[in-house]
Write a structure and sequence with these properties.
The protein has 5 helices and no strands. With 104 residues, the chain is mainly α. The protein folds into 2 domains: 1-50, no CATH class; 67-104, no CATH class.
Length: 104
Amino acid sequence: MLCATLVMSCLVGIYYGIKGRKKSTVDDYLMAGRNMSIFPVSFSIFVSTVSSISFIGDPVEVYYYGGIYWLLSIGIMTGLPIIAHYFAPILYRMRLTSVYEVSS
């Protein structure tokens, strides 16, 4: 599963790297011109959420703290729709690359 995730992530990056060779601005490089479909964006978010550190660290957390660790998934399932419907559109309209640019 880890290999499949990494290969898919690489393939998406290679595809959009070849597709956008003519574009040379930083916004086009970092944000793909803000015109990517939902599949590569959602897959990128998934891959960054479920990283290799999670594969190493999550079993240890469950071993130490037991099943209570699964409450994290309830928080994620309730928080992600709120972020997707309320905060993400605001940040998108502000033309920000990262949420860290809000404070500057």
